[in-house]
TrEMBL record:
Protein name in UniProt: Probable metalloreductase AIM14
Gene Ontology molecular functions: ferric-chelate reductase activity
Keyword Flavoprotein listed: yes
Subcellular location per the Swiss-Prot or TrEMBL entry: Membrane
An example Gene Ontology CC term for this record: plasma membrane
Lineage summary: Eukaryota, Fungi, Dikarya, Ascomycota, Saccharomycotina
Organism, scientific name: Pichia membranifaciens NRRL Y-2026
């Protein structure tokens, strides 16, 4: 034992001889970025809490809105600027490897924040992971870039010093492997994600685990504190995923020939007794199979309000490679809270919902909730619901879910039968336009469906009439759910019309 202690001491002395005091000079910079990460989480949480409290008291959604409305580009710029300052402070350029090491330490010290932001659901009830996932993506990019600059710096140093052989020392080679993994992640991130999300998900998880574990053994001085938090967050998230998930056999899946949409029903008892419109569940493979852990689950908005007395809740789903089959067992993780707070539903007095394709699932439940507030609660809400979809066969959704009051625009200019559209949508024909390019099915009484075929609407013109009924912008909203192009268009309209905007991106 004595000989072993002597050897360890001799190694430490030799290390100090080679690196001097500069060996530990970067430790404090890791602590600084770690502390600022914790401060960011605290400030964000308190800001959201304070904003919702102020909104509830004033009845206006814009009260102290500025405390939570920091644009994502500005938030990321602040993170990048903070990192740049920490790199630039006392860089000790007399030994270039000092600043190169600092890049790597700052990258690893940011990982706890990155994992925290990626939690599903968010760790704090005042927050929502759909609101933090974009931040997670950009923090991940900052981490990968810092790691790549760290690796490139050392590669250049070894080449210039003629010591490339150092690259193959076990602890250094771990860093070189991560450099290769990071290049694959950074260069092919978007193409792989767009081509095959499952492959991207598998590589993403492999990369994250490799980064956490391999850099723990690679880093000198050690990074045990950050590794502890990384490991605890990952373990806690995995345990929470297993304990929340429920296996269920899907017994009712409703389809319509020619439509790319389907309705999936599952026991409503899996959901809380009450929940806000806009909440969603995640469906994946049974949790008793290995696929539950290694393959992604898929989010779907619950299209049924908790006030609906049906024993089954409904999801409107676009057909994808992840196919849901009747009488097969899947895991359902309920319930992920809505990104819209109770304050929205209590104070909104002008709401314009615009959905594309399967995005109708979000619009339906918000629309039905507000419509009930008008009919049963006596509230004065100026309400409009526009659904843009590709195929006439999609309108079966309205009949199956017993929905009235939607302006439907079918964009495919194909041959169609008005009678079949009426039957699918459950709409009586009372008026037919003379325009040969589009057909209009409409009735005059309140909360009836309107269908226009072969034409995409001029959204600003379509929404203008309803928007103009309310002057105060604080509680006048455009809600958009669908593909990015639709969301961008609605966002521009909301800016021009000076009203509030909320969106969730769905595939069309």
């Amino acid at each position: 034992m004595t000989d072993e202690k002597t050897t360890l001491f001799a190694d430490a002395v030799e290390l100090m001889k080679r690196h001097g005091a500069l060996h530990t000079v970067n430790i404090k910079y890791g602590y600084i970025i770690f502390g600022l990460s914790a401060l960011f989480i605290l400030v964000r949480t308190l800001s959201i809490w304070y904003y919702q409290r102020a909104w509830k008291r004033s009845g206006r959604s814009t009260t102290v809105l500025r405390v939570t409305s920091l644009p994502l580009p500005l938030s990321i710029s602040l993170i990048v600027l903070t990192v740049a300052i920490l790199v630039a402070v006392k860089p000790h350029l007399e030994k270039i490897t000092v600043v190169v090491k600092r890049l790597g330490r700052l990258a690893y010290a940011l990982i706890p924040l990155d994992i925290f932001l990626a939690a599903q659901p968010a760790w704090f009830s005042v927050d929502n992971y759909l609101n933090t996932i974009q931040m997670h993506k950009w923090v991940s990019r900052v981490i990968v870039l810092l790691g790549m600059f760290h690796s490139i710096g050392f590669l250049a140093y070894y080449v210039s010093m003629g010591t490339v052989g150092n690259l193959f020392r076990p602890v250094n080679f771990l860093g070189f492997l991560m450099f290769i993994f990071a290049n694959i992640m950074f260069v092919f991130w978007k193409p792989i994600r767009n081509l095959n999300y499952t492959l991207f998900y598998l590589y993403h998880n492999f990369f994250m685990l490799a980064l956490v574990v391999m850099i723990y053994f690679h880093a000198r001085p050690g990074v045990g504190l950050y590794f502890f938090f990384n490991a605890m967050l990952l373990v806690a998230q995995t345990v929470r995923k297993y304990t929340r998930a429920r296996d269920v056999t899907l017994t009712e899946i409703i389809e319509n020939p020619g439509s790319n949409l389907l309705i999936v029903k599952f026991p409503k008892s899996l959901l809380p007794e009450s929940y806000l419109p806009g909440c969603h569940v995640r469906i994946g493979y049974s949790k008793w199979t290995p696929f539950f852990t290694i393959l992604p689950s898929h989010p779907y908005t619950v299209a049924t309000s908790f006030e609906n007395r049906d024993l089954l809740a409904s999801l409107v789903i676009k057909k994808t490679k992840f196919k849901l089959e009747p009488f097969e067992t899947y895991s359902i993780q309920p319930s992920f809270e809505s990104s819209l707070s109770q304050n929205f539903f209590d104070t909104a007095d002008n709401v314009n919902i615009v959905c594309g394709g399967s995005g109708i699932s979000l619009g339906l439940v918000i629309f039905e909730y507000l419509k009930r507030s008008i009919i049963s609660g006596g509230r004065e809400i100026k309400l409009k619901f526009v659904w843009i979809t590709k195929d006439e066969e999609d309108v079966f959704i309205l009949q199956e879910l017993n929905v009235q009051g939607v302006d439907v625009f079918i964009t495919n200019n194909t041959s169609y039968e008005l009678d079949s559209i009426q039957e699918s949508a459950g709409i009586p024909l009372t008026e037919l336009s003379n325009d040969s390019h589009d057909s209009l099915v409409t009735i005059d009484h309140k909360f009836s469906n309107t269908v226009v075929v072969g034409k995409r609407p001029d959204l600003e013109k379509l929404l203008q009439n309803n928007l103009s009924k309310t002057i105060d912008y604080a509680n006048k909203w455009i809600i958009s759910c669908g593909p990015p192009s639709l969301i961008e268009e609605c966002s521009k309209i909301s800016t021009k019309q000076k009203c509030r905007f909320f969106s969730e991106e769905y595939a069309f």
